[in-house]
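Side project, low priority. Logging it here so it doesn't get lost.
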Amino acid sequence: MQGIKRKLVYVCLFELIAIAITTGGLILLSGQSLSHTSVAAVASSAIALVWNLIYNSLFEAWESRQVVRGRNIWRRIAHAVGFELGLVITLVPFFAWWLNITMWHALVVDIGLIIFFLIYTFIFNLIFDHVFGLPASALPVNTTSTVNAYRNAD
């Protein structure tokens, strides 16, 4: 699976699992109710969904220009860290506002979620790539034409 289909399946699976886990984490880290934290989880998921589409498109564009192809451990770590840093910029102010907590407390809450999501993102990507295969941007150059031929057949 390649292209926009791959991105949509990836984002939807990632975020559905994330909403369930984030709601529980926000209850523990903020002390707020299930109804309040579930709204925060869905809203943060929507923010993450948009960021995920943007970030993965940018990352794959960068990745396709690299001489060394594939996704080694360092590239996977860079992918996960870059994604999470982008979320910090938007989610800390959102959590402070919605959960009615200080920016400092929101940062602490977000750091807890970041630690979880760094691990979750890494493991999710490994499993996703194992189940669905690597994207064209990570395939060796000689197999890209095969993938493009397959993509054009859709």
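Brief comment: The chain has a mean pLDDT of 84.
Revisit when time allows.
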